[in-house]
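Instructor's aside before we start: the two examples that follow are unrelated to each other. I chose them only because their records fit on one page, so don't look for a connection. First example below.
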Amino acid sequence: MELNATDQLPEDDLPEEVLRTEIFTEARSPIDGKPMTAQEYAELLVEIDQANQVDPQVSPKVRQTVSLLKLRKFLKTVLPILPIK
């Protein structure tokens, strides 16, 4: 007697491929866990994304130091015999 993989699955068990294509109509808030619609969830994600967009403020001295460190690393890679500490 030959058994197929589909013979062993319960009928209420959906394959993962089907579950991945399922459209979600309900969601929970990532902030407080309250139920919300998919539209409210999408709007909340946009608001969170906009709130997290902050331009970094770096002083010119720090920027120059980082640039010099990058140059030093490059020189050590290209010219490893130079005594750069």
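Example two begins here.
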Amino acid sequence: MSHSASQSSETAPGSTVTRPDLTPGSALTEAPILAYYTRGDLVESVHRASLIALDSTGAVAFQHGGIDSPVYPRSSLKPLQAVAMVRNGLRLAPDLLALVCASHSGEPFHLDGVQRILAGAGLGVEALQNTPSYPLSESELRTWIIEGRPKSSLGQNCSGKHSGMLATCAAKGWDIASYLDPDHPLQQAILETVADLSGETPGPVATDGCGAPVMAISLTGLARAFAAIASADPGTPEGEVAAAIRAYPQFLGGTGRDVTVLIDGTPGLIAKDGAEGVYAAGLDDGRAVALKMAEGGGGVGGGPQRARPVLMAAALRRLGVASSAYEQVETVPVLGHGEPVGAVFAVGV
């Protein structure tokens, strides 16, 4: 007898793991094929995604799949979290504010920036509570391993966000030790800001990979939030965050990262990638895109993540956005024996 996902709360034969009584949302179940992975003369794999694009009036320009079911934005939420921090007293130089929005590569200037944020708040790296990890950058990872350096909270890609959270708590006089508690005043302020910018009540709150609370919103809400931040007036918290991202995209990502390349080559754009195949972008005229790969994916560039920048580039092209970055991000080569034998490219966006 077969069971649907919503009926699978029993324990599988021979297993001690109880399956949760969950049903995937429409962002996953209704996601169409939007990218091909080719090798030679065959389509070797396909990637499904849900995607929404907004025009400058906030109306839906085009959409694919389920755009109204809740998804976890993962690190694409960071610009929204940064707005909440600025609204609550965080004052940083633009490069450091961009770092608060980052999933950084762990390059020396990233780690120096995190320590500058902490020092400005009278804190040290020991205050960080994000999950210890190695840097995302392959070259930095090799260096750390050769030098025998252990995983650390400083090197983990979310340390900029966590240092910003700590600095905000210091500015407001809030408790430092419990800053990751969902009921902490900082996390409640973030929840309120996410609701404000997305125009919807956030869904379930869970724990992100770095240890911080992450709340679910729809792709429509995520696109709406990026439009609001990207088109905000200078001098507002939203405008301050957008200006920092545009001025310092290398702090938001890192050397050679697709998100950094895209922002750097696209006037007026802000963008942020996230784990499990999430990507969001907004322009200064209010246009915006948000997408979610149905298959999720691991870290940056892995599995379905390889199609994520390709789909973003295709969506921005269809919106009429000019960019010098498209040549670098709108296709991903597929290699055979070290040579290109195919590509990942968008279809039907």
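Residues 1-9 have pLDDT under 50 and may be disordered.
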